[in-house]
Amino acid sequence: MFSFAKVSFDRFVSFAACLICSHRLLLKGRAFVYKRNHPEYEVIYPSGGAGYVLSQASLRAVGENPKLLKAGGAVEDMELARILRKLDIHIEDTRDSEGRERFLPFRLDQLRKHFTRVAYPTLWFWAYSYFYPKEGMQCCSKRWITSHYAYSSTMYEYHQKWLDGTEGKGKDPSDL
To answer: b/e for 109-141, b at 16 or more Cβ within 10 A?
Structure first.
């Protein structure tokens, strides 16, 4: 089970989907799950906007090693990745079996309909993603976990869709 999940006021999180995914991934012990970014940095780091999850063992390891923390260091997602690397805590691939993302750094509608390489060729998302991002309806897993930049009305919409079984619960949205 996970012990820590990064969330914020503008991030929708399906904790039910998170429990299903993290149960499989975090049973391995010390693990860290999120959407991977990697540009030219020495550390593969999480997209903070998409959120991330730490296993109990990972969280304990970070807490037991306060000397690794840098006050005023890099942004929190890169800093956490640096610390976990020093602790030899591995990063899990959270994509589904078809290579679609579960931790989404943007809203679903943005990823599915608006953000294409043609329309936004210089968007950071294309260059910083560790895995080559898919576009359109194939961008996101049927069981996505988080969506960033989701404000209150969008969160209510996502929650209702999840209750209806049409989003994040396994039904392919392209079939709707």
So the answer is: ebbbeebeeeeeeeeebeebbbeebbeeeebbb
1 contacts 22 by C-beta, under 8 angstroms: yes
110: DSSP letter: I
Name the DSSP class of 129: B
Which residue in the block uniquely carries the two structure tokens 């296993």? 55
Using alpha carbons only, give the angle 29, 32, 33 rounded to the nearest 5 degrees. Answer: 120
What is the distance of C-alpha 35 from the center of its chain? 4
How far apart, in whole angstroms, are the C-alpha atoms of residue 130 and residue 161? 29
Segments in 30-151 forming alpha helices (H): 56-63, 76-86, 108-109, 124-128
Tell me which of 58 and 135 has the higher pLDDT: 135
- In this prediction, residue 116 carries a pLDDT of 92
The three-state (H, E, C) secondary structure of 140-159, written as one string: ECCCCCEEECCCHHHHHHHH
Helix (H, G, I), strand (E, B) or coil at 123: coil
Please state the pTM of the whole predicted model: 0.78
pLDDT (0 to 100) of residue 103: 85
Q: Inform me whether the pLDDT recorded for 176 exceeds 50.
A: no
Name the amino acid, one letter, at 134.
K
Select the more confidently predicted residue: 32 or 110.
110
